[in-house]
């Protein structure tokens, strides 16, 4: 599974062997995306027990095939997870649970390629941190619209975005 417009990046299913690099990618992407948008102590706390996070990822990857990674010659540069939705008040059953790309790859098509590989043109929904305007604009370009639903978490308020099938 590869994307023709990304000659140096291959999109593939994540495997349990990806747990450690995926953990570091996830932590780095949170720092890239959320520094200044959520309390710094939330970001710092995520790095306090990296071995436990690696094991959590390993378990997730052993039990589910819902995670895709974008791999470049120098390592993982992004990932996406999509699967059965957790919200029961939405018309679609497909949820984008995660889509993260390293900051140095923003605007290169990696995020689009991951989203395309994860959900194609199907109807879906996702949650995005309110105030994360870069991500909100990206999802709007992919046909997602805010539906007015909000949810409070330790890291801040999230807004739900929904897309009808295209």
From TrEMBL:
<keyword id="KW-0808">Transferase</keyword>
<keyword id="KW-0012">Acyltransferase</keyword>
<dbReference type="InterPro" id="IPR016181">
    <property type="entry name" value="Acyl_CoA_acyltransferase"/>
</dbReference>
<feature type="domain" description="N-acetyltransferase">
    <location>
        <begin position="9"/>
        <end position="166"/>
    </location>
</feature>
<dbReference type="InterPro" id="IPR050680">
    <property type="entry name" value="YpeA/RimI_acetyltransf"/>
</dbReference>
<protein>
    <submittedName>
        <fullName>GNAT family N-acetyltransferase</fullName>
    </submittedName>
</protein>
<dbReference type="Pfam" id="PF13508">
    <property type="entry name" value="Acetyltransf_7"/>
</dbReference>
<dbReference type="InterPro" id="IPR000182">
    <property type="entry name" value="GNAT_dom"/>
</dbReference>
């Amino acid at each position: 599974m590869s994307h023709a417009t990304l000659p140096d990046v291959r999109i593939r299913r994540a495997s349990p062997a990806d747990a450690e690099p995926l953990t570091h990618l996830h932590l780095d992407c949170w720092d890239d995306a959320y520094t200044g948008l959520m309390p710094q102590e939330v970001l710092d706390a995520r790095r306090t027990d990296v071995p436990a996070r690696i094991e959590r990822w390993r378990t997730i990857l052993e039990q589910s095939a819902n995670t895709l990674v974008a791999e470049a010659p120098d390592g993982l540069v992004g990932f996406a997870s999509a699967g059965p939705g957790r919200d029961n008040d939405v018309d679609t059953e497909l949820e984008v649970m995660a889509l993260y790309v390293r900051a140095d790859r923003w605007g290169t098509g990696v995020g689009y390629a991951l989203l395309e590989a994860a959900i194609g043109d199907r109807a879906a929904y996702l949650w995005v941190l309110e105030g994360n305007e870069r991500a909100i604009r990206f999802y709007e370009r992919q046909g997602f619209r805010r539906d007015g639903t909000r949810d409070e978490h330790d890291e801040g308020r999230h807004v739900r975005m929904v897309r009808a099938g295209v």
